[in-house]
Amino acid sequence: MTPETRGKKGKPAVPGTKRGEASVTRGRITRKPLISKTTKSAKTEQYSALLRVGSYSRSTEVAQVRLRPDEMAALRLVMQSLNLPSVSDALREGLRLLSREAAEVAASEEIRAFYQGAPAPTPAGVLPATAEELAAADEIEW
Predict the structure, then answer these.
(1) In terms of C-beta density within 10 A (0-12 exposed, 13-18 middle, 19 or more buried), how is residue 123 classed?
(2) 39 falls in which pLDDT band (50, 70, 90)?
(3) Which residues pair with 6 in a beta bridge?
(4) Residue 102 and residue 98: Cα distance in Å, rounded?
(5) Could you tell me if 39 and 48 are in contact, meaning their C-beta atoms sit under 8 angstroms apart?
(6) If DSSP codes are grouped into helix, strand and coil, which group holds residue 6?
(7) Range list of H helices, 1-140
(8) Cystine design at 103: which of 2, 23, 47, 85 (Cβ 3.0–4.6 Å)?
(9) Are the CB atoms for 18 and 4 separated by under 8 Å?
(10) How far apart are alpha carbons 46 and 37 in whole angstroms?
């Protein structure tokens, strides 16, 4: 980069500006997100924050849980198949999945509320699903 195309401290300047010129962005190119945070509900934000926090928290809390023998056997089987070293790791993974599910439910409720009962629009060239296709999709098991 030439000196004219560099901003302060060697960072790229906004295209079309010269070194030392004052601009609203102060020499940085800024981008706006496609979806602003104001469109998300507080509930969706809380669930999203739970998903982000995961391994970043520095303190821990103890939570007691009572499991029936069949639930504990199922948990041990899951721990073996997913190669999880401890019950705590298995329960954390379960909580992470529950948080993801709750975020998806909250997002679907927001979409339903936004369209007020009308079907969501489909992309150009895509036909809406028929009642038979929706019923067949409901029958599919993972």
Answers:
(1) exposed
(2) low
(3) 12
(4) 6
(5) no
(6) strand
(7) 42-53, 69-82, 87-115, 131-139
(8) 47
(9) yes
(10) 12
Paired tokens of 95: 């909580």
C-alpha 78/C-alpha 87 separation (Å) is 10
How far is the CA of 64 from the CAs of 24, 61, 78, 91, 98, in angstroms? 53, 10, 20, 11, 18
Residue 55 DSSP code: G
Residue 30 token pair: 């800024």
The tokens describing 62, both together, are 């103890």
Our CA angle for 127, 134, 141, nearest 5°, is 130
User: How is residue 44 written in tokens?
Assistant: 């969706």
pLDDT score at 10: 54
Q: What does the pLDDT look like over 76-115, one tens digit per residue?
A: 999 999 999 999 999 999 999 999 999 999 998 998 899 9
Question: Which amino acid, 22?
Answer: A
The answer to whether 27 touches 8, Cβ cutoff 8 Å, is yes
